[in-house]
Amino acid sequence: MVLLSCTLILATQLSMGTAVQRGQERKRSLSIHTFGTMFSSVPNIKDNEELERIDYDENVKDVFLGESLNKEVLSKASDFEADYSPGNVAFECNEINCDDENLVRKAPVMDITGGDDKIPGLNKMKRDGLDNTASVDISDVDPVVTTRLGRVRGLTLDKAYVFSGIPYADPPLGVKRWASPSPVSSWTYIYDATFPRPACMQVCAGESFESCPTKVSEDCLYLNVFLPLSVNLSSPIVTSLPVMVWIHGGDFIAGSASKPLYDGRFISNYSNTVVVNIEYRLGKVDVLFSTLLQKYILMHIVKYGPFLGAFGFLVTGKDPESSAVGNYGILDQQAALLWVQENIAAFGGDPNKVTLFGESAGAQSVCLHLMIQSSESLFRHAAVQSLPFSIPLKTRLDAMKLGWDFAKLTNCSVFDLACLRSLSAHDVLNAQVKSGKIINPFRFLEAFETWGPFIDGELIQEQPITAFQNGHWQSYKPVILGTTSEEGVIFVFGIFNKSVSMLEIVLYTAAIFKQHTFKILHKYIPFYRNLDKRVMFSQIVTDYMFLCPTRWSARSGVSIGGSVWMYVFDHPPSDDSIWKNLTFCFNHTCHGAEIPFLFDSAPSTNLTLTPQETLLANQMACFWGAFAHEGDPNSRGEQTPFCREQRLPVWPKYTFTEGWSILNLTLQSHPQHGNRDQFCDFWDKLDIY
Prior knowledge:
- 55% of the residues are buried.
- The strands form 5 sheets. Strands 5-6-10-12-11-15-16-17-18-19-20 form an 11-stranded mixed β-sheet, sandwiched between helices.
- It folds into 2 domains: 144-465, Alpha/Beta hydrolase fold, catalytic domain (Rossmann fold); 475-686, Rossmann fold, CATH 3.40.50.
- The chain has helices at 2-14, 67-84, 265-271, 328-343, 361-371, 396-410, 417-422, 425-434, 464-470, 489-495, 502-513, 517-524, 534-559, 595-598, 602-605, 611-630, 641-645, 677-686; strands at 38-41, 50-53, 144-146, 151-153, 155-156, 160-167, 190-192, 199-200, 216-217, 222-228, 241-247, 274-278, 286-287, 305-306, 349-359, 381-385, 479-484, 564-569, 662-665, 670-672.
- It starts with a helix and ends with a helix.
- Helix content is 29%, strand content 13%.
- Its EC number is 3.1.1.-.
- Keywords: Hydrolase, Signal.
- Residues 142-283, 308-683 form the Carboxylesterase type B domain.
């Protein structure tokens, strides 16, 4: 009992930074507390400003949950244990090859969508160099389109015309690094859009190395366009098609628009739409989870280092003339959407009928554009897939603290933007690695999105869930919202590689949810009596992070007149190769499971689908396509012969009068009432999203 008491006291001390303090106000400005809080001068800060720095060490002291909660945890933990009991990942940078052009990359655990970054059919176009100005001699059957910037030549492939690697902004190099994207210069030659360009800078770490892009570069602001072969590019466009713009996920630190998983040929062809996949500057290099620190307590504690936001999200100050001001990745997305407005008509697309869709970090991006005033005119519909609404965006102070630490390691002043821009990509990456700190181990929920956009007060003014609740979003736009049924599995099992006991789960839950711990455990434990409590914890993460706040946001939107359709993707893929080495996702519907079905991209990813799964994939492509056409997934007015053959079930609109019905996307998709309503009602009443 003494050992248990010491363990829980230490655990609760470590958890001070995770106090759930969002409640009714929902300000989402999480205060950061340290193991041993240290105050020191930020390097080269003007006016001798002194702000709190995070500096964790092994001397854990003077931090506690509060006397009453400590006593409650101590008194109840043993009761829970009695009543209910029935690979390390590290960042690596090869010093020989870790230069601007040859980066050693290993995939983060959460990057589940593997494969080379070349779309099948484009391998013949691989080149030793990446001369974007080269004009190539390709067969006359390949399409040439005249944009406002100049002519581009693409490829005629099975199912679609494909234009890869079209620039939508000037390369963010030199003085354009850590600056808003600038318009791309025009050209007079025929631009070679027959092969993808490098993905944006990223260094991956984890078990799915093969999922990393084969080439990365700071010169990465490109997009890919897919359009049906039925579009006649040799004559003036008579009937324009709706446009679907995909924003890829990857925690704002990884991913690429050119992954085979996102091959837009099939959804474009089947639904008669123009599909655009965009690249955007990414954030930090991330060591998601490393060694388990048994020296702190006699059980697993999670550690992850937030290697500072760099190319897409570095923040060192407020003045863009002297500092990096962040949110560049979101501004890149805006620039890509502006390119669509100005150029997509040349590809047969309708700039007045643009649908944004994205998953995970891509879904958060879509949600932000629904909130950002300057994005309002750039799209018409939105599909938000697997957005962790409960993960708060960083505050300006949090973002700047990381930026200051980064600047110190580069020997640049935080206000010397010229010095920061003079760094090589190699120097930037090395500084990111060295700047990682051990933060509160129990804030691992934030590891889902440890860096990315922050609330700057101008572009982004509040948390997404708060915006939905208060009606501060473009609620007149039709929206699809949804999740997979087991979002939490990939995160929980990715962190805890061994079975978790009841004692441990009490510890972790107390660290995250503080005074709500025992309410939560009393709610879930009767339904999850597995000896391995990771199963229960995965469902808690699914409900708290994804499903229930999505339901909350959907109902908030409906209450102010919004048109919303909700879904849950509830089919574990039969081909486990989708998960690579993430064996804990075998036979589960993990985060991202819906993507190969939505894009119907099995032929490009070497996945094998059963006939029933093929039907599900076809139906999803047609649902999203119908939504792009008319803002209603049930629309049949522009349905293709292919989609008519799929016999789509009715997808009820998410309303009270319809009983809050959602669509269960599975082998026999069907409307569903009451998807985990008792648990979501519980979380709604707890009021801690």
